[in-house]
Design a protein that fits this description.
α1 runs antiparallel to α3, α3 crosses α6 and α5 crosses α6. By secondary structure, the protein is mainly alpha-helical. The protein contains nine helices and no strands.
């Protein structure tokens, strides 16, 4: 009788220890899952936030670049594919819909029939809208939403920063010349986004 009671108590203790061990494993797994979820969420929020900032910085550079001492049409035109590839999905879908079609239609009509009333500084933004509207799905979805688009943005940003630094006579001078600070900061911002996005995609 005593032996049976001892065995029963031992079995209950082993079952209790096993349940406690499993419970600890569940808690550890939940903590690990929570930490990974928080990390991924923070990375995703950071990438989205940088994407918005970089897009607006590129638009700012597109509009003011020709009015500064750094006038190179090729470099300015490179901002068009950068904005196309980095524009947040919310804005991209709006411009790719009826709103963008109407803007592109008006821009083309003004440029064709009223060229004198079409400002020069609106040519590149108008070209951007037309590009967003007519781009095939290979570019608007596959490349834009993949790592290829991020790599293209990174290459464009690196090239623009190199040329801007060279035109300014060095990195230090790029912060001292007229409009140099805003241009330099804008180019650095458009460089940070693809670098961060590519890093988080690799990790």
């Amino acid at each position: 009788m005593g032996t049976r009671s001892y065995l029963a108590m031992r079995s209950e203790q082993e079952a209790t220890d096993l349940i406690a061990s499993d419970f600890k494993d569940v808690i550890f797994a939940a903590k690990k899952l929570t930490n990974h979820a928080i990390k991924l969420a923070s990375w995703g929020f950071g990438t989205t936030f940088l994407q918005w900032i970089a897009s607006f910085a590129a638009m700012y550079l597109l509009l003011i670049l020709d009015r500064t001492n750094w006038k190179t049409n090729i470099l300015t035109a490179l901002l068009i594919p950068y904005i196309f590839l980095s524009l947040p999905s919310l804005l991209f879908n709006i411009l790719r819909g009826e709103v963008g079609k109407w803007i592109a239609f008006v821009a083309v009509v003004l440029h064709l029939f009223f060229p004198r009333r079409f400002p020069d500084w609106l040519e590149l933004p108008g070209a951007l809208i037309v590009l967003i509207v007519v781009a095939p799905s290979l570019f608007s979805s596959t490349i834009r939403n993949g790592w290829i688009g991020v790599v293209i943005c990174l290459a464009i940003a690196c090239y623009l920063l190199q040329e801007h630094t060279r035109a300014s006579g060095g990195f230090r001078n790029s912060f001292t010349k007229a409009n140099g600070i805003s241009n330099t900061i804008g180019i650095i911002v458009i460089l940070i986004y693809p670098a961060w996005a590519l890093l988080t995609d690799i990790l």
